[in-house]
């Protein structure tokens, strides 16, 4: 049995302690916005926040999450897609296929919580998610647009 707080809701889950958090979120909780991409924490499609820190959930065993830690998925970032990063993604038409974008948005929101005005070097260092469509220039532009809103440190 594991006790997790996901998007502000405490949940008791019967699960093997070695089960990756990604599968608990998707299969047991039913929040499918967090995606499976590679299974080795390389691509970032599975990115969620744990206490505000962008974390790749595909390799994190549920036993490594403390019962009081706050897990935020893409569904919990904002109830109406009004988070500044989501709004910037829409304004700049960032996604093509969209598969990686939930993880990319979560990584960008995590970056902006830690560094509200990142330089290109900061974005390069922190946003290591893989996008097969190659929308990296639009991702960078959207992160900078979201940073201009000044609201990114208060949410997510």
From TrEMBL:
Top-level lineage group: Bacteria
Cited InterPro entries: 2Fe-2S-bd, 2Fe-2S-bd_dom_sf, 2Fe-2S_ferredoxin-like_sf, 2Fe-2S_ferredoxin-type, 2Fe2S_fd_BS, Beta-grasp_dom_sf, Diverse_Oxidoreductases
PROSITE patterns named in the record: 2FE2S_FER_1, 2FE2S_FER_2
GO molecular-function terms, A-Z: 2 iron, 2 sulfur cluster binding; isoquinoline 1-oxidoreductase activity; metal ion binding
A Pfam family reported for this protein in Swiss-Prot or TrEMBL: Fer2_2
EC number: 1.3.99.16
Domain spans labelled 2Fe-2S ferredoxin-type: 1-77
SUPFAM superfamilies tied to this protein: 2Fe-2S ferredoxin-like, CO dehydrogenase ISP C-domain like
Keywords: 2Fe-2S, Iron, Iron-sulfur, Metal-binding, Oxidoreductase
UniProt xrefs under PANTHER family: BLR6218 PROTEIN (PTHR44379:SF2), OXIDOREDUCTASE WITH IRON-SULFUR SUBUNIT (PTHR44379)
Name of the featured protein: Isoquinoline 1-oxidoreductase subunit alpha
